[in-house]
Design brief:
The protein is of the alpha/beta class. It contains 8 helices and 10 strands. The strands form 2 sheets. Strands 6-7-8-3-9-10 form a 6-stranded mixed β-sheet, with helices on both faces. The longest helix has 16 residues. The chain binds adenosine-5'-triphosphate (ATP) and magnesium ion.
Length: 236
């Protein structure tokens, strides 16, 4: 589905060059559940943003379904983003002046669906994340876990090929994190491809493949065995 080859991202701070990503090769197949881990500053968010076409690499090739998207216009990239990717962030990023239902309807409006269909679909999505009882609540009237569930519903609105999450449980209490991870597991079982960035070994145990970054490089990339999952979950 996605093929990154030799992806680099450099930043310049005055004369200092920062290699946030340093020749990354990464392939993602449909149905995968990948966790990205690594120390702070190792390039995790940069990689996720490039994967989701929120940011462009300074070098390398990005193939999406065998199409090289590295040189497309901003407009074409925005269309690809809206059609293929769903994003979940640490700080939910809900619109404070919109209620839960309206928040989930936003991406559907970008996709130019009629209003009645937008409402119907947004209600279905909120039902999926067990938030049907809070349709009219504004973000500041919801708990952190509830806000994150609304954010997940919104990310799923246009049936993304790939769901990208940057520390999605970073602001949540552990029972709420567990709930969000269970939800992501269910979505993965139903076929959604997921890439999630986390600091937390417990959270990473929900994935099926673990990619470790250090200094902008992939230092390991391996499947997570059932045994490892069980060990991490029990904190060994
Ligand atoms: N806009 C920018 N300008 C300059 N340097 C940047 C910029 N964005 C990121 N960097 C640098 O690139 C490196 C990778 O940053 P990135 O945000 O990807 O790290 P991260 O692994 O997500 O860290 P964290 O776990 O703290 O979120 C860091 O050294 C950071 O300082
Ligand atoms: Mg980050």
């Amino acid at each position: 589905m996605i093929n990154l080859r030799g992806i680099c991202k450099q930043y310049y701070m005055g004369a200092v060059e920062i290699n946030a990503l340093d020749y990354i090769d990464l392939s993602i197949e449909r149905g995968e559940f990948i966790t990205i881990m690594g120390p702070s500053g190792s390039g995790k968010s940069t990689l996720l943003n490039i994967l989701g076409v929120l940011d462009q690499p300074t070098d390398g090739t990005y193939l999406l379904e065998d199409v090289d998207i590295t040189n497309l216009s901003d407009r074409e990239l925005a269309r690809i983003r809206n059609r293929h990717f769903g994003f979940i962030f640490q700080s939910y990023n809900l619109f404070p002046e919109l209620n839960a239902l309206e928040n989930v309807m936003v991406p559907l409006a970008y996709a130019r669906r009629p209003k009645s269909e937008r409402i119907k679909r947004a209600k279905e999505l909120l039902d999926l994340v067990a938030m049907s009882h809070r349709l009219k609540h504004f973000p500041n009237q919801l708990s952190g876990g509830e806000q994150q569930r609304v954010a997940i519903a919104r990310a799923l609105a246009n049936q993304p090929t790939l769901l990208l999450a940057d520390e999605p449980t970073g602001n949540l209490a552990s029972d709420q994190s567990e709930e969000i991870m269970q939800l992501l597991c269910e979505l993965n079982q139903q076929g959604t491809t997921i890439v999630i960035v986390t600091h937390d070994p417990h959270i990473s145990s929900f994935g099926k493949r673990l990619v470790r970054l250090q200094d902008g490089k992939i230092i390991s990339d391996a499947p997570i065995t059932h045994q490892e999952q069980a060990q991490r979950r029990s904190g060994v």
